[in-house]
Write a structure and sequence with these properties.
By secondary structure, this protein is α+β, with helices and mostly antiparallel strands. It is built from 11 helices and 16 strands. 36% of the residues lie in helices and 25% in strands.
Length: 361
């Protein structure tokens, strides 16, 4: 059970992978690398990830796929290259990425998997409350989109499902990343073999046996692919559990984006080819999503242009029949989404500063 729970959390590279693939498309186009651009386009899977569009009268013009800001992307984590259909299982990763009209920035809003929200019904109406990842289990990506659209009063333009089988390859492809950790922590649920090269501390497993658990010392730490997974999957042993884990995720996303730029992965054709084949093979996008055109729109985005936030949470609560949930702060959420809809997120952030992703706990 524990191994399965940990496996579902391999989502740390969601944003970096998606942006890398989009930027890859634009770089390939600008550089005239048509063959490479076509390769990444072919590697991405496509499925029906959006709710059905309203019926149009005969002869009405078809709305073109959206490629300009303001725009909302929804990143959904998966371990099995699902197509976003009912029964694919719950997703532990839900991230809303808002691109404003200027398309020169991206606001990355993590929505914890246990967030207690009204789940859209099969016909898209407001339903009973449950954990947000239940929407994906009950109705696939379209129902999750409907749930968040209703909750935030927004329109999600493009959902993207990311499979994490290639995460270690992506991490090691850039030579690992360096992070700064504020305080030593021990993950009492992550047992290491005796010959493990990673930092560890003595601990006890559920059977009372003496083991070694992964430990993260305070200070600067270099993470290769495997250790990075351990770092972002830790939940217990952190002061604020899931909220601190979300901050670690965001810290690592930024570090990865910066490292990719430092390694010239997007300008060296050979390195670019490896990145394309690894990253694009992890994605499932909507059938209508115009990847090449979106890539051109987002081609200027870099790590410094990403602002990281977490959906405001008021409290943790146990709900009979559902379990431990995270209850959103209703007033703050209304304020957040009103600012998003009006293009005033910078004003919102002056009152409610974003997450500091230069370090983690």
């Amino acid at each position: 059970m524990a191994a399965s729970r940990f496996a579902r959390r391999r989502w740390v590279l969601v944003l970096a992978v998606v942006l890398a693939v989009l930027v890859t498309g634009s770089v390939a186009g600008v550089a005239g690398l048509r063959k490479l651009s076509g390769r990444y386009e072919d590697a991405v899977d496509r499925a029906d990830l959006l709710p059905p569009a309203p019926a149009r009268s005969a002869g009405a013009p078809t709305e073109p796929p959206k490629v300009r800001g303001p725009m909302n992307l929804l990143l959904i984590g998966s371990d099995s290259r699902t197509k976003g259909e009912p029964g694919d299982g719950r997703s532990d990763v839900v991230i809303l990425v808002h691109i404003p009209a200027s398309t020169g920035r991206a606001y990355v809003i993590s929505i914890p998997r246990d967030t207690y929200l009204p789940i859209a019904t099969a016909d898209g109406e407001r339903g009973s409350r449950n954990k947000v990842n239940a929407a994906f289990a009950w109705g696939g990506a379209p129902r999750l989109v409907q749930t968040l659209n209703r909750f935030g009063g927004i329109t999600i333009d493009w959902p993207v499902i990311v499979d994490f089988a290639g995460i270690r390859k992506i991490t090691d492809l850039v030579g690992g990343v360096d992070v700064t950790i504020d305080k030593k922590s021990v993950d009492a649920y992550r047992f290491l073999p005796e010959d493990s090269p990673y930092p560890s501390a003595p601990c006890t497993d559920p059977r009372g046996r003496s083991r070694r658990c992964v430990a993260f010392p305070a200070g600067h730490v270099h993470l290769d692919g495997k250790l990075a997974e351990y770092y972002v999957r830790q939940r217990r042993g952190l002061p604020s559990d899931d909220l601190d884990r979300s901050r670690r995720h965001q810290q690592y996303l930024r570090a990865l984006a910066e490292k990719a730029a430092d390694q010239n992965l997007l300008t060296d054709p050979r390195k670019l080819d490896r990145l394309v084949r690894t990253a694009a093979g992890m994605l499932t996008v909507d059938r209508r999503m115009p990847l090449q055109r979106l890539a051109f729109t987002l081609r200027h985005l870099r790590a410094k242009d990403l602002t990281f936030m977490t959906l405001p949470i008021a409290e943790n609560r146990d709900v009979p029949g559902i379990g431990s949930v995270m209850v959103p702060d209703s007033a703050r959420c209304r304020e957040l989404f009103a600012a998003l809809r009006a293009g005033r997120l910078d004003e919102y952030l002056r009152q409610h500063p974003p997450n500091d992703v230069r370090h983690g706990r």
